[in-house]
Amino acid sequence: MHIGRVLITQEEIDSRVRELADQISADYADRNPILISLLKGGFIFLADLVRHITVPHEVDFITVHSYQNGFARSERIEILNDLKRSVNGRDVIIIDGIVDTGHTLSFLEQMLEERRVASLRVCALLDKPSCREITVPVDYVGFKVPDVFVVGYGLDFKERYRNLSYIAELIPAPVLAEAADPATAPKNEERTAPAKRNP
Length: 199
Ligand code: IMP
Ligand code: MG
Description:
Elements: E1 2-8, H1 10-27, E2 34-39, H2 43-50, E3 58-65, E4 78-81, E5 91-99, H3 103-114, E6 119-127, E7 140-144, E8 150-151, E9 167-171, H4 173-178
Parallel strand pairs: 2-3, 2-5, 5-6, 6-7
Antiparallel strand pairs: 1-9, 3-4, 8-9
């Protein structure tokens, strides 16, 4: 696995996150919403977003497991770590890193409706609309991305690459293997395996 082209730069993310925070601040004046971060992919987005939100709000975290291992998608979802506070009667905004098939969000929306939230909106940094298998409204979208696997800014591949400050495409290993011919192999150092060294 290697990092491919950068799809969204750090600067683009930064300015879009500020715009989203401005929109949320305008929409939720005097409402004290709870922002629920979907872990782990949404944690960096939430951390940056709340620093630009100017209205009173609370944060909470939820971890759901969608039985996926790397690229594979699945419809089976369970809660690994639940919210710490009641959402009954509260205005809730789900803060998600990426909406892909929509199954995770659909599951969460149903769960939060059952807990009788007053209102529910979704804010996702990235949206892959072409991959949707179930209809879920996303009220605040940072960027639409094509049907490629992306990493960075909180999003991982098998727990790696969350720390990148930009969003990049992940290149699957077999594609690189095909390009093993030195004439066509990528010259970028980032794309070659690092030399083995003692830490
Ligand atoms: P869903 O398919 O909309 O239910 O998304 C499930 C989860 O899959 C997301 O919350 C992400 O954690 C993960 N996911 C989907 N697409 C990507 C991707 O391109 N990169 C990293 N994680 C992804
Ligand atoms: Mg993941």
